Amino acid sequence: MGSITLKMQHPALYSEAGDVVRLFYGDTPLTLYREGDMEPEADVMIVQRARREGEGYLHEAVLTGPDRAPLTAAYCQQEMGEGTLEQKRYFKYGVKIVLYHLLTQATGKAMPWGSLTGIRPTKLAYELLAQGRSVQQAAQYLKDTFDVSREKADLLFQILKAQQGIVCHESFRQLDVYVGIPFCPSRCTYCSFAACDIRKNRKWVEPYLAALHHEIKVCGQMARQAGWQVRAVYLGGGTPTAISAQQLCALLEAVNLAFPGAAEVTVEAGRPDSIDRDKLRALRDAGVSRVSINPQTMNGETLMRMGRTHTPEQIVQAFALAREAGFEAINMDLIAGLPGESAQDMARTLRQIAALAPDNLTVHTLAMKRASKLKEEKGRYSLPSGEEVLKMLEAARAAAAEWGMEPYYLYRQKYMTGNFENIGYSLPGKACIYNIDIMEETHSILALGAGGISKWVYPAENRLERTPNVKNIEQYIARVDEMIARKEPRLCGTLLDRPETVIV
Ligand code: SF4
């Protein structure tokens, strides 16, 4: 198909409606048509409208095209939630549901997550339970309302069960701290993070760390004075272990001083080519409890194609060094759907990972992120089909179960192959608190460093506020005091000064 036009009575919801259309039509160019715009010449036109009916809305959608009979769908929405924000959210659901019904008819396809896009499905599941539904009723509601498959609904409630005792909705004055190191040994082609190649940017490392130390110190003072308790600390990026052992030591010392009392400290040691014995020892001595060593795949050719400057053998060595240093919680990340890979490659990777016996496994589905080289040069790569990726994800799920792991968090991203998901698996008792907190959005996150986005949780209103730091390293160094000032009102309590009602 050449192009699609969306004609919307509610153009403010164009982005959400576009997400649903893309589930079915992928990268097909999509434009918004507003009243008064030039009549479009798209192959397909989708019209969205809604009108009040009783307490709710009647949503309608129509699809027309040159060589087809018009298709229509209607969805009568009675449940609208309470309060303006809730009602807006429910209305948005209604628009997406009717478009989903229309496009299911048009294509004959169904999606595993139904019309759920841009939403954390576990959050919705918690909400349904909090409304008084049983697990069975909530699963049925997800199926009936959003067309979520039975398998995905079961997965959600399995995750909620695994989170019991860790997830905490009573988050008043508790926060997690994220510290970003935006340097990596090289840049992976699929990367969309604010991470740069340390080989070309060494001159920025010291000034960056000086600015970061300053932000850590000042924000730590503010947080302690305002009575925040720190639940978990996470050093990510980038690859924190790309800096030297000495620099890591100094950084962790500063973090421990500024934010004492964390129950968990995690460091992304993602790239094996950034790890050595000294660094791992420095991490252990500084109280780091968890590390992540990420193969993504154990296929050396794919690693090379993806711009990762390490071999599968280095993964095995780095893992052994981490165990030798005493780490008892080691995560490994894999990506399903990497260019040129098949289900057989995933099976081979899983066999090699099994021999290492990690404590956590995180399985991502490849997402074509806008800022990535992979997206820019998409034509150069051959991507596995959605069916092949599904086989990979199923193989990973079976392997994790065989190793005694259970899924404990899940999230979805835009532009993901096959509309699947990312799942974190864990051995019993080895789940990462920070991962649960950030996915369930139960705790405020204080994010320090370039590209960090602090999130302030208002559970009573079921909403978040974000305070981003600039992504650019030079800008961050020059404007670190401004980054601190942006966070000050919330960190010092002037905007978060009341105990909040608990949702669940
Ligand atoms: S290691 Fe991670 S952060 Fe660094 S370039 Fe690769 S994907 Fe990006």
From TrEMBL:
Gene3D superfamilies: Aldolase class I. PROSITE patterns: RADICAL_SAM. Keywords: Iron, Iron-sulfur, Metal-binding, Oxidoreductase, S-adenosyl-L-methionine. It is an enzyme of class 1 (oxidoreductase). Transmembrane segments: none annotated. InterPro entries: Aldolase_TIM, Coproporphyrinogen-III_oxidase, Elp3/MiaA/NifB-like_rSAM, HemZ, rSAM, rSAM_sf. It comes from the Bacteria. Its EC number is 1.3.98.3. Residues 169-406 form the Radical SAM core domain. This is Coproporphyrinogen dehydrogenase HemZ.
